[in-house]
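Structure ticket #2291
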Amino acid sequence: MEYQNVTLSLPKEVLRRVKHIAIERGTSLSGLLTHLLEDLTRREDEYRRAKKYHLAMLDEFDLATKGTVSWTRGDLHDR
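Resolution: structure written out below.
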């Protein structure tokens, strides 16, 4: 894996607390951030796959709309 340096601007108190967390976990600040960002991107990928899967599943159902919605939100709520 190729690495690239980045510059971050963080509030001093947040940085101080995160450094302590990294030390408690036996890693560096870079290692902690890498782990958190990898987890974030993994969860985003899983969400997008699940969304795509479920939207494709919905396409299989005939909702009797023929692709158009003939009612308004107010109609549905008797407004």
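Closing remark: The mean pLDDT is 93.
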